[in-house]
Fold each of these.
Amino acid sequence: MNKPLPHSDGAPSAVAEGALRITEIFYSLQGEARTVGLPTVFVRLTGCPLRCVYCDTAYAFSGGEMMPLSAILGQVAGYAPRYVTVTGGEPLAQPDCLPLLRQLCDAGYEVSLETSGALPVAEVDPRVVKVLDLKTPASEEAHRNDYGNIAHLTQRDQVKFVICDRADYEWARFKLDEYQLAAKVSDVLFSPSHGSLPGRDLAEWILADNLPVRMQLQLHKYLWNDEPGH
Ligand code: SF4
């Protein structure tokens, strides 16, 4: 694995290189998606323009600390990870997310991006695995989905539906077919909304309809009860 760039020691270059407002950087097990269970550094960017009713990271809506990209890369390197996930909030709401993703890839990490699907992904470095949400009606943010993003997904990427009830499931099943998602990306993820839909119900619906999707439960909620920093 290549080493990240050394930390910049001058304020002018820090401005030139870009900076991001960061809520937290931590090392944990990936709780979901294709790399579930693998040790991963999470870089959680502050801020999100959405307000999903089930949001479990509202603490990332505000606050945080401005960090130059070199300082972020330096902190990530301290964990010597193989996998790095850039998440939020909505990470693409900050323009310097794009150079961060590129520099993390340049440093040799396997990089993924968790995004709400509401902001354009066209400029994301193609080496990044995009995990793109399609917001369901019960999230109350389905009107924010940017369906133009689907054209920019590849076999490296994943699409996630957080499903709150049977109506959400039917909606997700329709979108799966409408956009032929199973053929377009590596995994389509159906995740029961924690606390509102029993995982067993979702599992039985998927089996009854023989859907080409991967059901997932969020590992970190079982291990750490969704505490920040995990
Ligand atoms: S997009 Fe994600 S971070 Fe933003 S409100 Fe929805 S669940 Fe929360």
Amino acid sequence: MAILTIEPVGNNAIASHDGCDTFVPATGAMPAECRVTLSRHRLVTIGFTDVNAPPQPVISRTPAGAVAVNQTIQFSGAGTTDDQDPQPLNYQWDFDNNGSVDSQALSPTYAYSSEGTYTVRLRVTDLQGAAGETTTSVVVTSANRPPVASFTYAPANPTVGQTVMFDASGSAG
Ligand SMILES: [Ca+2]
Ligand SMILES: [Ca+2]
């Protein structure tokens, strides 16, 4: 992003600068004509000032809701925007918010090995070193295992016509 600046030199005053003293190419249209009217024999400097806004990180993930222990989560920082798109950006993911970077991929995958609520931090840095951060939380629940069916019956060797009792209370799940 660049801003056009018009500055008087010394005590010189700018008589007028009709609507063209500031423009932002990234967000607005550059005026077709920039007319600066000066008092006679005045000096001004006309220049561009570079300003750089930090990236605005956006975290998305699939699945979006609570996940199970060891379930793979697909994260993505592709929704991140920067004022100088499409310049390359550096992505730093900290899936457990412990301060150590776990991935620098745009769209990494991750799985949590134990239950809990985790804070995921994404820091995105542009080529000029400006950085933006955002966080989201992930709830990890105990793994959902299929139930284990089992039963016992008595008597062990029933004869024809004999009533047999089944007991499935030993099932787990
Ligand atoms: Ca930027
Ligand atoms: Ca970490």
Amino acid sequence: MERLTPMLKVRDLVLRFGGVTALNGVSFDVGHGELFAIIGPNGAGKTSIFNCLNGVYRPQEGTIELAGAPLTGKSPAAIASLGVARTFQNLGLFQHLSLIDNLMLGRHHLMSTGMLSGMLWWGRAKREEIAHRSAVESIIELLELESYRRMPAGLLPYGVAKRAELGRALAMEPTLLLLDEPVAGMNLEETEDMARYITEVRRQLPVTMILVEHDMGLVMDLASRVLVLDFGVVIATGEPAEVQENPQVIEAYLGGAA
Ligand SMILES: Nc1ncnc2c1ncn2[C@@H]1O[C@H](COP(=O)(O)OP(=O)(O)O)[C@@H](O)[C@H]1O
Ligand SMILES: [Mg+2]
């Protein structure tokens, strides 16, 4: 029975900023274990959907349910503790901290308060630290970040920093992972690498993913289903091949040029 409840159920979201309607009646479901992609031109409202899902924005209308429980109206911290993690379109790493410390910080909501204060670990807290370190090490291994673990995040090559950002989100042990333009600014080789890591994460970890992308190419390879957004409105939802042939989608991407 539980399998029939979608992981995420979004209904009729409306989000306005003054006179701008960023989202206008957005509805979709994401199934357990899916890699669901949201694509659309710049300004379509993709990041706004993420900000509604993680509680940073409060939509004026609509509902969001995670595994049957309402998320709408909850704080970002409460939503994170329910297992929703995100990466940022622009890097969300602490530049002066090492990669490994950034990943450790990703786990802060799983840690007891005593451990957080001061980042100095004594006695009982030491055992907790070891458990967290080992969880972080397995993520480092999965994403092949071993040789960068001590490097300050600010010195990581761009493609590696984007991967570290994925690692930071995974360190939260999310059940729902929101990836905001994970290949933005990457060259072809870095993009292919990232696609491979996302596939590997999906194979090894029990995590449902929503991927926001400006670029269609990556999405078509990775996604189980795709939602196309244009000016805050859903213009198509379906399997990648089917969405790609939709005339409205082609129009939104090629505009007057077609
Ligand atoms: N905090 C904000 N204040 C005012 N307008 C915003 C804010 N966030 C997003 N918008 C507007 O909402 C629309 C959708 O933006 P966004 O969700 O960032 O699009 P995308 O991620 O698809 O490029 C844009 O018109 C943008 O200017
Ligand atoms: Mg965006």
